[in-house]
Amino acid sequence: MLDENCIFCKIIRGEIPSVTVFEDDHVKAFLDISQTTPGHTLLVPKDHIEDIFHLPAATAARLFSYVPMLANAIKAANSGIKGMNIINNNGEVAYQSVHHVHIHLIPRYSDQDDFNIHFGNHSDMYDTAALTKIALTIKENLQEAPHA
């Protein structure tokens, strides 16, 4: 089901124009209007799902199964691509600006292409005991993994 106020749902319905890269009954892939780098593509499920925390496993399996096909097509379209960031942001603190689950495929041409991600190194703050405690807390909250 689509949300009447969601910009991606409006794109799926054709109410807002987009440049489609791929579409079938389940997903739509289109160029991001910002084009962080040339070829920056968004992949969205056709059902309105807010974020990864609401994404059913079967839908996730289907959605993510399109990523290699799209990544390879984007790379084949431009021999200058040297890598690709594949990003899914969830929640405003994680830079999710449209609350419809989506995957960014951002081609990388060089390390000077106006895009960066910073992973802070805080390894000096965590010894094995602290890491084990974090892992155990996560393990205690795991649900049985669904099989696609």
User: Could you give the order of strands across the largest sheet?
Assistant: 1-2-3-5-4
Helix content: 25-40%
- Radius of gyration, in Å, reads 18 Å
Whole-Å distance between the termini? 22 Å
Give the name of the CATH architecture.
2-Layer Sandwich
Plain-language structure description:
It is a single chain. This protein starts with 6 loop residues before the first helix and ends in an 8-residue tail after the last helix. A five-stranded antiparallel β-sheet has the order 1-2-3-5-4, with helices on one face. A hairpin with a 3-residue loop joins strand 1 and strand 2. The protein has one domain: HIT-like (HIT family, subunit A, 2-Layer Sandwich). The chain has four helices and five strands. By secondary structure, the protein is an alpha+beta fold. The chain is globular.
Properties at a glance:
five-stranded antiparallel β-sheet, 4 helices, alpha+beta, HIT family, subunit A, globular, 148 residues
Secondary-structure map:
Elements: H1 7-13, E1 20-23, E2 27-31, E3 41-45, H2 57-65, H3 67-77, E4 83-87, E5 103-108, H4 128-140
Antiparallel strand pairs: 1-2, 2-3, 3-5, 4-5
